[in-house]
Amino acid sequence: MFRPESDWTGQGRAGVQNFYIEAAARVRDAHVDVRHFDWVQPSSGVFSPEKHYLDYSLDGQPRRSMVSMGRPDRRAASGDILYMPPHRQYFGEPALQERHLVCVALGEEFLEELFDGEQPLNKVEPCADIQNISMRRLFAGLAAELRTPGFASQTLVESMLMGLAVELARHMGSRERGSQHSRSPRQVQNIIDYVLENLSAPLGVADIARDCNMSVRHVARVFKEGTGVSLGEFVARSRIALAKELLRSDGARIKEISWRCGFNSTSAFSAAFRSATGQTPKAFRSTSAQVH
């Protein structure tokens, strides 16, 4: 069984190039590393972490990889932060993207000592897209410290891992309490699937509501409650992520890519892309070509 928290030694890297671990640290049975790899060929597979597994994308873009979060009917697009409880099977379909990740594995010894024997994560469900500013800051801090360690680095890394575990327990605990009152988890997944399959089409809230057989008010509220982000933000992020993928791997003209990503004009696409990434589409394509 593929272990995502490992260094992938002996597990096969079909479809992956340029894999390397930039920096790593261990605190008892907790582990954190900064890793890089390129998915260059379509692939899919089943994986199961042995510890509480989290990762964070350092690329500043949502991943378009799809993950079945424990059940076939829980297929979701990976976001900036992904969490998987241990000893469960997940099915993944990674997108063809270059990845820079902070990967964290939290073992039982580390968690039991931190939570004084309590087990706040034992009944928590997986989540493909955690929206939590505090966790993002901790992940970014871990990456910075691993890359350029300073005085008392091990102590600082341990404190940030502890903070990450506490924030995870708080966030997922409140999410679980909220989900007890949510009537529409399947509706949220239907909306996600519809958006990802129709990025070239108009995707205003009214359009999505009509095609998903919901009212405008209901579709916006259900999505926000179920994911923590607005429907408009999810559409915008997904379009930019698709644009990046096409600019890296497709020889199509920028005008065609803008149309395939749902923009009415090249100028509108360029403005949105630059706002999201800090680069024009042309500059991004040139930079990606130099990297590869």
UniProtKB/TrEMBL annotation:
Keywords: DNA-binding, Transcription, Transcription regulation
InterPro entries per UniProt: AraC_XylS_family_regulators, Homeodomain-like_sf, HTH_AraC, HTH_AraC-typ_CS, Tscrpt_reg_AraC-type_HTH
Organism domain of life: Bacteria
Single GO MF annotation: DNA-binding transcription factor activity
Signal peptide: none
Domain HTH araC/xylS-type stretches: 189-287
Protein name, entry field: Helix-turn-helix transcriptional regulator
